[in-house]
Amino acid sequence: MPDWNALDDAYGSAATVGAMLExxxxxxxxxxxxxxxxxxxxxxxxxxxxxxxxxxxxRAALNAVPAQRIEPLVLAGAIVSHADSAPVQVPGHPQLxxxxxxxxxxxxxxxxxxxxxxxxxxxxxxxxxxxxxxxxWSRALAGVLEGELSGVCPACQTDLYIVxxxxxxxxxxxxxxxxxxxxxAVIDAAAGDPASAAERWLLEMARAHRDGFVDTLRLxxxxxxxxxxxxxxxLREAVRLSG
Length: 243
Description:
Distance between the termini: 33 Å
Order of helices and strands: EEHHHHHHHEEEEHHEEH
Shape: globular
Structural class: alpha+beta
Number of strands: 8
Largest sheet: 4 strands, antiparallel
Strand order of the largest sheet: 3-4-5-6
Strand content: 5-15%
Number of helices: 10
Helix content: 40-55%
């Protein structure tokens, strides 16, 4: 058992969240996932207690029916994708990430065909990518649900809005919401299969379970140009630079 008093979470000492995780492990308490999120991954910040929580989240997922695995897997995925160190390592748990990824893959197979909300599906995809070490779409993929992702021009370091909200698909460095005239650059969708294994897997999952996301993914994997300096860039690199 970790020394939770010696670990930190979003509110300081991890004693409270440690007690919650011990109850989760023992199956003796009702889990408030919103509270766990606020302690362990508040605004995508990861703490020393967050990493120690990962084995608890894995066990919670392994001991649950498919629909109840989603919360622990998505929280674990967020912790791994936003951790400062990569790959994430927890002493005494050398197979932690492969086991989390296997559990996520099995859960996707079992629940993706159900009446699963798009947001939940995308967050499970993000978690699977995170456990495999991918560091771009494991953080940013779900941004397509809001129609906008943040980017940074690789050439001039200007902050960019990447808008993928069909029928709109463009890049701009100017505030575009509100209807005012702004300079935009068209996003050119990727042709063919991506070179990245992670991106090929995402396309396969979309074709199998959410065909409506295929065109969106091809835009994400595409290219555009900066409206500030005119330099061309790959969207994935601009998203990576935005953190």
